[in-house]
Design the sequence.
């Protein structure tokens, strides 16, 4: 039997990553993520597997983001019994993200069913299902080879995207190799290692999220952050930072710690107001194997915690969270959800958005139709908890924090491989414009053939 590959998600779109490999007599998935976006269509797509979950031998999970991991509990509910291979950090972060997703769905169900919908809404999975699927995980460090099935060996390389993220390289025997990038990060990202180059392969399945975009240089992050903090303190205001609880929050904390140590910013009070961010930071603390040299030199070798310092406070209960509001002095509040759709950030925005002395600092991607996007677009008036508020606070956008490679980063990554050997690059995980542009960029560096992967289509390799 030959080698076949099909994408049942993240083909011509950026969520729902789910790919089936059939190699010799084994069938395994790479990633099993949720479709996100508008509720009704995503909800329907999330309930369909285009294969029998019981027929799948294993799952290889590249990283913990919801759009890569969060249908795993549902897969197990539907009969999957095999191993789920990931790095140790990915297992821990995925556990947190899957549990959070279960919790959000359970709350959605409560709220939607109050409205007496003709068809009651049932969560895709619950917290129990998350705990159950964690037993299927087998964790493997970067660079250690393991067998996905009798005839397929795999090795994880650091993808530099989020804590624990990996690029998977499969050796299918007879010197036939296939690589799957997962989501690729950017060189220079704080805390975690840069993306690693991978060995030469015959086929590469590559993400193309930013196939048509270039990011601002990462080196600018600290300088811009310093400027915003000084400007806001000078006006006597507060800095509100909506941030994803995993990775972006830790990136910001790490930078603020550096800036305070270097005395580039004064020691004002900093609040991380998100129980999920607190839990995620605890996971970051134990996975020191994922840190880059800078963190090791600046913190670990000196016996210092990169995510803890005098004026940094993690608030985990509502009473503490409410107290932040009474503070009159300038301070920094980091809270989630990252796109301002739910969570405690809404309270901080409500309390601070109408004061022109304050700054709302945007450090992440804001999807269409979210409150975060409306603020980033500086709409004069926005709705929070159903009430209108005037957007009088200053809005600053830092584009330096993307966790995804831009097209030049991907060109460098692919260009490092033996292009003579590389038969074809399959592009996934991108909108149409990004996919088309990335295809052109890769052909321009000498890649022989580029194929945009169509959803639910089986491709034969070798
Ligand atoms: Zn990702």
Sequence:
């Amino acid at each position: 039997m030959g080698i076949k590959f099909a994408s049942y998600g993240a083909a011509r779109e950026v969520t729902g990553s789910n790919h089936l490999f059939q190699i010799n007599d084994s069938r395994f998935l790479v990633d099993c993520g949720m479709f996100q976006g508008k509720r009704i269509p995503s909800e329907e797509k999330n309930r369909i597997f285009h294969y029998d979950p019981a027929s799948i031998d294993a799952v290889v999970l590249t990283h913990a983001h919801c759009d890569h991991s969060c249908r795993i509990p549902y897969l197990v509910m539907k009969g999957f019994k095999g191993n789920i291979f990931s790095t140790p950090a990915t297992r821990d972060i995925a556990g947190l993200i899957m549990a959070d997703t279960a919790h959000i769905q359970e709350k959605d169900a409560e709220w939607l069913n109050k409205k007496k919908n003709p068809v009651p809404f049932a969560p895709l999975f619950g917290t129990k299902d998350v705990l159950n699927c964690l037993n299927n995980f087998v964790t493997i460090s970067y660079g250690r080879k393991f067998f996905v099935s009798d005839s397929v060996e795999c090795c994880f390389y650091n993808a530099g995207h989020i804590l624990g993220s990996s690029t998977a390289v499969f050796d299918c025997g007879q010197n036939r190799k296939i690589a799957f990038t997962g989501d690729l990060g950017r060189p220079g990202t704080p805390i975690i290692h840069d993306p690693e180059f991978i060995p030469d392969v015959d086929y590469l399945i590559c993400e193309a999220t930013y196939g048509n975009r270039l990011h601002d240089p990462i080196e600018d992050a600290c300088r811009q952050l310093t400027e915003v903090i000084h400007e806001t303190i000078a006006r006597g205001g507060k800095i509100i930072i909506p941030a994803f609880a995993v990775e972006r929050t830790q990136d910001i904390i790490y930078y603020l710690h550096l800036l305070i140590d270097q005395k580039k910013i004064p020691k004002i009070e900093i609040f991380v107001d998100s129980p999920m961010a607190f839990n995620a930071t605890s996971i970051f603390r134990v996975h020191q194997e994922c840190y880059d040299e800078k963190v090791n030199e600046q913190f670990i070798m000196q016996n210092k915690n990169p995510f803890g310092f005098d004026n940094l406070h993690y608030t985990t209960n509502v009473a503490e969270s409410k107290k932040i509001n009474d503070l009159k002095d300038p301070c920094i509040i980091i809270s989630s959800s990252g796109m301002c759709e739910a969570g405690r950030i809404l309270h901080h925005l409500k309390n601070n958005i109408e004061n022109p002395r304050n700054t709302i600092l945007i450090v992440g991607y804001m999807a269409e139709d979210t409150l975060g996007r409306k603020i980033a677009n500086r709409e004069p008036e926005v709705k929070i908890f159903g009430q209108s508020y005037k957007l009088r606070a200053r809005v600053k956008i830092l584009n330096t924090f993307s966790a995804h490679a831009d097209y030049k980063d991907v060109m460098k990554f692919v260009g490092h491989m033996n292009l003579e050997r590389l038969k074809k690059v399959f592009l996934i995980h991108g909108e149409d414009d990004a996919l088309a542009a990335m295809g052109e960029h890769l052909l321009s560096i000498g890649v022989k053939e580029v194929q945009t992967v169509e959803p639910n289509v089986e491709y034969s390799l070798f």
Remarks:
- The domain at 220-401 is CATH 3.40.50.10890 (Rossmann fold).
- Residues 63, 65, 68, 161, 183 surround zinc ion (CB under 6 Å).
- The first helix runs from residue 39 to 46.
- The chain has a mean pLDDT of 95.
